[in-house]
Structure formats: C-alpha cells, structure tokens
Amino acid sequence: MPVGILIADDHAVVRDGLKMILEINDDFHVVGTAVNGREAMAMVRELHPDVVLMDIAMPEMNGIEASRLICENYPETRIIILSMYHTHEHVFRALRAGVRGYLLKESAGNEIVSAIRAVLKGQRYLGKSVELPRELSGREPADSTKSPLESLSKRERQVLQHVVEGRTSAEIAATLSLSPKSVETYRSRLMLKLGIANIPALVKFALQHGITPEN
After folding, report:
1. Paired residues of 51 in beta bridges
2. Are 84 and 44 found together in one domain?
3. Which of 41, 85, 98, 198 is most deeply buried (CB count within 10 A of its CB)?
4. Within 35-179, where are the H helices?
5. What values do phi and psi take at 28, rounded to 5?
6. How many domains does the chain have?
7. Contact at 8 Å (CB) between 93 and 210?
C-alpha cells in the first residue's frame, strides 16, 4: 500500500513541485495539500496520512504549532518540516513539538525521499545543513538552554504570533474570538513573562526566537 503524504505549504509552486518529485516513486501517494496550519490539521484528521511535509511560515496557524497539535492528537503521523529557516530556535522548537525530520527547502528536492523513508522507520532525519540542538542531543540537560517561549501558554503564543504580524488588539480579538481587553491582558502577561517593556522590542525578540510573520 502506498505511503500517504500530505503537503502543507502556502505556495502553490512548492506544493506542485513536491508532488511531482514524490509521485515519481510508485510507493508514494500525495493524498492532499493544505495551504495553512489549520487546514493541515483538519486534513490529517480526515485523511490520516503517514507523513506530513510541513512549512513553518503559513497563515492562520504556523507549522510548528500545527505540528505540535498533530503530534499530540495523531502520534502515528510523522511530520517533516520543510523550511527556509534553520536557526537554532526554529529547529529546537520544531523537534520539541514532535517533528521527526527537518529539511531546508533549498535542498529538499535531493533529500526528501531519504527523509521520508527514514522517519517511516522511526528514525530522526535532519538535512545536511541542519544541526541538532545540543540540549536535544543528550550531551547536556534538556532544560539547560530552554527556550523562553516555553514559559508562554498556548493562548499567549497565539497572541504573540498575531502581534508579530502587526495586527491590532481588535483584529486579534476578532480572530481568536476574544474581547480586545482580553487580548491586551494576554499581551501584557506574555511581555511580563519575557521581561520585555514595549511592542518593538517584543517583535524583535519574537523574530530572534523563531516566531516569523506568516504570509
């Protein structure tokens, strides 16, 4: 039975290119494509793919948050991140979310088949230019360089994502079904946790720690 693969990326050219590369292999079948993290979650629930190829910067829900939720609810589905970002923070957050592979988009065409076969065997696969964070390698305690973002609640991370994208409290409130006052409370709380005093500094901090504007 062919391996069922879901592609989640908001760029059609990437989705089409990956599908073409994958379906050259008779044992691979692309069961669907998604354009954002929320749609990817819904399609995993419906289609139960063996593997999800997930971008990070996508609208509505970023790929790392979507990966975390998929791994929690559908642990039999393996996720491979395909991204242009390969900072320590991006890789750390992705692996902590439960993904099994991480590739740079620029080299995905050459490595994607090997990555899929590896994660299906239960192995972890990192692209040639991707380094395993030391705190996940077993050489030092896992919490020794814990990401500051892990102190935030799920709702606080959602608010932070929207702040990075330049949305107002009213816009965030409408998206998350909250009151503007609640959004401001979450924003103030997360800034206090992170020790940040103003919005420009918050946005700079978020970008440095792998929270990218979704496009």
Report:
1. 5, 78
2. yes
3. 41
4. 37-47, 63-73, 88-97, 105-120, 154-164, 169-176
5. -115, 140
6. 2
7. yes
Q: Is 143 contained in some domain?
A: no
Coil, strand, or helix at residue 107? helix
- In the DSSP assignment, the letter for residue 23 is T
Boundary (domain end) residue, out of 89, 112, 136: 136
For 26-55, the pLDDT digits (tens) are: 999 999 999 999 999 999 999 999 999 999
How confident is the model over 142-159, as pLDDT tens digits?
444 466 777 889 899 889
Retrieve residue 129's tokens.
Answer: 């230019």
Number of C-alpha atoms within 13 angstroms, CB side, residue 1?
5
- SS3 at position 199: helix
76 and 41, same domain (yes or no): yes
Inter-residue contact 43 to 12 (CB < 8 Å): no
pTM of this structure:
0.70
Local confidence band at 87 (pLDDT 50, 70, 90 cut-offs): confident
